[in-house]
Amino acid sequence: MIRWGKRFLKIAMILLALIVLIAAGLLLFPQMFLCVDSGPAKADVIVLLGGGGTHERPEYAATLFLGHAAPRILISGAGDDEINRRILIKEGVPARDIELEGKSRTTRENARFCAAMLQGEKVHSAIIVTSWYHSRRALKTFEHFAPAIKFYSRPAYFKYKHSNWSRDFSRRVYLEYVKLPGYWVAYGVWPF
């Protein structure tokens, strides 16, 4: 009986140490877990998600477009869709190659509304441009709502280095650890 108690205690301590190590790794190196970058890809469209810290998302989407990653850009997100459109045009993207989805207010709505548009247009592949810390949840949400479309993740790397983070930015990054399981529970979006 005592032998089982010691063995159980030893296993519990090992499990606790593993949990502490994993938690420390997630907090100290969120880039390794939250950031998903598919690498260079060609697709039918670039889907630019609204939000972000500055204008890194539309600037990066323009870079991909001008590098011939896709022939057009779909901007998704209410509020900053027109701002992102103006930035894209300023960066050299022709207005005729930009389409707007300006109703969505969440990543889930981005995926649902864009999925309907993309499926209606018979799109087979899309590159998602968002911030690095948002890229895992965005990619998995789009894959969940449009499984017939091949999605690639090409995140912008604004404030990727931990030394450049502000308190507000840290909050955004660490909030992803709450949103990932939240999307799994609420919408069935598996984060892995």
Describe the fold and architecture.
- The chain has 192 residues and is an alpha/beta fold.
- The chain has 2 domains: 2-31; 35-187, Rossmann fold, CATH 3.40.50.
- The chain is 52% helix and 11% strand.
- It has 7 helices and 5 strands.
- The chain has a 5-stranded parallel β-sheet, sandwiched between helices.
- Strand 1 (45-49), helix 3 (56-66) and strand 2 (73-76) form a beta-alpha-beta unit.
- The termini are far apart.
- 35% of the residues are buried.
- The mean pLDDT is 90.
Brief description of this entry?
This protein has helices at 2-28, 30-34, 56-66, 81-90, 107-120, 135-145, 167-187, and strands at 45-49, 73-76, 98-101, 125-129, 150-153. It is of the alpha/beta class and 192 residues long. Strand 1, helix 3 and strand 2 (73-76) form a beta-alpha-beta unit.
Overall pLDDT metric: 90
Report the top-level CATH class of the largest domain: Alpha Beta
In angstroms, what separates the terminal alpha carbons? Answer: 40 Å
Uncertain spans: none
Strand content: 5-15%
Q: Which labels suit this protein?
A:
192 residues; alpha/beta; Rossmann fold; 2 domains; 7 helices; 5 strands; 52% helix; 11% strand
